[in-house]
Amino acid sequence: MELTERERNVLYYLAQGYKNNEIGAVLNISVHTVKAHLEMIYEKLGATNRVQAVIKGLQMHCIDVKELV
Questions:
Q1: What is the DSSP string of the chain?
Q2: Quick check: 11 and 41 in contact, CB under 8 A?
Q3: Domain assignments of the chain as residue spans, ordered by start
Q4: 14-52 pLDDT, tens per residue?
Q5: Torsion-angle region of residue 33: left (phi > 0), alpha (psi -120 to 50) or beta?
Q6: N or C, which end of the chain is more exposed by having fewer CB within 10 Å?
Q7: CA 17 → CA 1, 2, 13, 14, distances in Å?
Q8: Alpha carbons 46 and 44: distance in angstroms, whole number
Q9: Architecture of domain 5-68
Q10: Is the whole model's pTM more than 0.90, yes or no?
């Protein structure tokens, strides 16, 4: 399953080490919405935590390591 643009945005900030409240502030969404996006990201990528989601997101080219520098 492919990630939506918003899910990719959340994953990008997750890879940057942002906390849920910081992701929400940057994307102008609630922490509850961030958590809902994270649940979908985990499900779609087959991840169980933040680190796995970032690793799988990189492996599946959902986010680009060059953007993280």
A1: -PPPHHHHHHHHHHHTT--HHHHHHHHT--HHHHHHHHHHHHHHHT-SSHHHHHHHHHHTTSS-GGGG-
A2: yes
A3: 5-68
A4: 999 999 999 999 999 999 999 999 999 999 999 999 999
A5: alpha
A6: C
A7: 24, 22, 7, 5
A8: 6
A9: Orthogonal Bundle (1.10)
A10: yes
Question: Rounded to the nearest 10 degrees, how much is the dihedral formed by the CA atoms of 24, 7, 53, 22?
Answer: -10
* Lookup: tokens for 33: 């919405």
Take residue 32 and report the two structure tokens written for it.
């509850």
Look at the alpha carbons of 14, 2, 44, 53 in this order and tell me if their dihedral is positive or negative.
negative
Q: How far apart are CA 53 and CA 13, in angstroms?
A: 12
